Sequence to fold (395 residues):
Amino acid sequence: MTLRHVTDSERRSRIAVRHCLAPAHRKEHVTVVTHAMTVLHATEAATVHLALAARTEGLTPEAIDVELYDARQVVKQLAMRRTLFVFPREMLPAAWGSAAARVATSERKRIAKAIAGAGIAPDGEAWLDAAREATLARLAAGPATTAQLRAEVPELAGTVGGDTDKRWDRPVPVAPWVLTHLGLEGKTLRGRNAGHWRLNKPTWTTAEDWLGVVPDPLSEAEGYSTLVRSWLTTFGPGTAADIQWWLGSTKTAVTRALADVGAVQVTLDDGSVGWVLREDAEDTGPVEPWAALLPTLDPTVMGWKQRGFYLDPAHVPYLFDTNGNAGTTAWWDGRVVGCWVQDDEGVVRLSLLEDVEPAGRDALEQEARRLTHWLDGTVIGSVYASRQMRQAKLP
Fold:
C-alpha cells in the first residue's frame, strides 16, 4: 500500500486552522477553543488566558474566568506527564481512567516511600489513605486553599526533608502531595482562583461540589482511545512517538489506541510514519500567511515531541529549557521565528531569531500591539523564561 505523503507545509496549514491561530480561524468562546486544542496547558495560570487570547476575538480575562469558575464547562485537571491542563468537562472521565490514573499509581508509590523514609509513619500508604480521608472530610464542609487545609487538617501540616545542612535540602510540605493524589483520581478539583488570573492560587473543592454529578472514569483502553482520537484531530498527523510522549504513556497503550480509533498511516517529509484519523486524511489546502504570539508552555508548541517541521533545531536551546519546556514563541507562516517579552510598562516586544520578510514583521508587530492592548498593563512573569527571553529583557 502506498501511503499518502503529508508535507511539512500542509502540517503547518493544519496548525493555522485546527489550532485557531490564523485570524480567519479564531473563535469566540473558551469551550470551542479548548475542544479544538484537546486541552490547554495550565502549569502556569497565565498560559490558559494567553493561549485563549491568541485564538479568540473579544474575550477578556474576566470572561475567561467566568468560563473557568462559573460555567465550569472547562476544568483544571492534572493528567498527562503529571502536568496540569484545562480539559473540556466531558473529557474528564477519559483522563481519570487513563493518563491521570497512571500518574496516580506512580505518585502513590513515591509518596508512601517518602513518608516512610522520613519516619512520619511506618506505613506510607496507610498514612496517605488517612490523610486523603481527612482532607475530603474537611472539603465536604466547603472549599479551602492549601494554606487553610494545612492549618485545619493535622495530617497536612507536616513537611519532609530539611534535616541536613545541605543547601538543596529544604523542608517540603506534604499537603500538595495529598491534594495532587486526590486530584489525579478526580476526588478533588481546583476551584476558584484565590488570586489574580496570572497567578496559580487554587481553592480546592470536592468533585461533587464543583461538578454536581460526577461521572465514572472510563476504562483505561477507552480513556486512552478518547484522548488519542482528540489528539489526532488537533495535532495529526503525528508519529506514535509524539503521541506516547504527549500522553506520558507506553508504546503498547498508544498502539492499542491507534487501532481502536482506526487511525491510518501517512508518510511525513522526514520519511517517518505519521498517523491521522481515517476521516481526516485529505489535504486541508493552503492557508494565508499568519502571525501569532504564544505563551510559555502553549499547547501548540508542546503538542509534539518531534518539532522539526515548525522549528529550526538551532533555535531549541534559545526557546526551550533543558527539560523541553517552551518559553514564549513568535510564529510567522507556521514556523517559530523567535519569542516575545514585555517591558516594565507591559508593552510586548519581539525578539526574533530569524530574518522575517517585511510582511511577516508587520504582522508580528500587529500581534504585539494586539497582545499589549489585551494585557492592559498586566506584566506576566514565568519560571519557564527561556534563554532568549532572558537575553531580550537585559538592558
Summary: The first helix runs from residue 8 to 18. The CA atoms of residues 92 and 113 lie 29 Å apart.
